[in-house]
Amino acid sequence: MTTASPHAHGVHFGRTDVQNVGMGVGIVLIVVGILGFIPGITTQYNSLAIVGPNSTALFLGIFQVSILLNVVQALIGTLGLVMSRNNPMGARNFLMGFGLLYIVLSVYSLIVGVGSMANFLSMNVMGAWGFLILGVAMLCAGWLMSRHLADDTNTR
Predict the structure, then answer these.
(1) Which residues of 13-26 are buried (b: 16+ CB within 10 A; e: fewer)?
(2) I need a labelling partner for 8 at 20 to 30 A (CA). Which of 20, 33, 116, 139 fits?
(3) pTM score, two decimals?
(4) In the prediction, which pLDDT does 10 show?
(5) Model confidence over 24-61: pLDDT tens digits?
(6) Side-chain-side CA neighbours of residue 22 (13 Å)
(7) What are phi and psi of 78, to 5 degrees?
(8) Which of 60, 56, 61, 69 is nearest to 120 (CA)?
(9) Strand locations in 1-156, DSSP E?
(10) Within 10 Å of residue 28's Cβ, how many Cβ atoms?
(11) How many angstroms separate the CA atoms of 63 and 67, rounded?
C-alpha cells in the first residue's frame, strides 16, 4: 500500500521523480567534485593546477581536471541538491538550466581546443564529451520528468 495517490505521476518518498533525479545528479556532482581532490582517484595529482590547460591531473585517469573545475562541480551539485529538495520546479530548472550550461561549456571547450589558454576549466576532449553527454541527459531528464507537473499540482 502506498501513500501516493493513484493519479500522481511518479511520487516517491514525498518527492516527484524530477526531484529525486535532480537530487541524485546533485549528489553525484558533489561526490565527483570532492573525489577530484583525492590522489589515486585523480592521477598525476601533483600537476593539479588552479585553472587553465596546464593542469594535467586526470580524474579516473580519463578526465582532465583543475581545482576550479572540481570546486565548480561541487558547487553546482550543492545548488542542485538545494533546488531539488522541496520544489519540483526547482529540480526541473536545475536539470534543464545546468544541463544547458554543461552543453555550452563542452562546445566551448571543443571549439577553443585543449591546449588553449581560453580552456580555463582544464577540460580535455574526453571531459568535453562527458560534459556534453551529461548536459543532454540532464536537459532530457528535466523536460521528460516535468511534463506532468502541472497535472500533479492541479489534482492534489
Answers:
(1) eebbbbbbbbbebb
(2) 139
(3) 0.83
(4) 54
(5) 999 999 999 999 999 999 999 999 999 888 888 999 99
(6) 32
(7) -65, -45
(8) 69
(9) 11-12, 15-16, 42-43, 58-59, 63-64
(10) 14
(11) 13
Pairing of strands 63-64, 11-12: unpaired
How far is residue 119 from each of residues 2, 107, 138, measured CA to CA in Å?
A: 50, 11, 23
Burial 79-110 (b: 16+ CB within 10 A, else e): bbbebbeebbebbbbbbbbbbebbbebbebbb
State residue 77's pLDDT score.
Answer: 97
- Reported as a single tens digit per residue, the pLDDT across 98-139 is 999 999 999 999 999 888 888 888 889 999 999 999 999 999
Q: Let me know: does 95 contact 27? Beta carbons within 8 Å.
A: no
Beta partners for 63?
59
Closest CA to 114 of 106, 105, 124, 104: 124
Instruction: Determine the Cα–Cα distance for residues 122 and 66; give it in Å rounded to an integer.
Output: 6
The one-character DSSP state at 74 is H
Distances (CA, A) of 51 to 68, 119, 120, 123: 6, 9, 6, 10
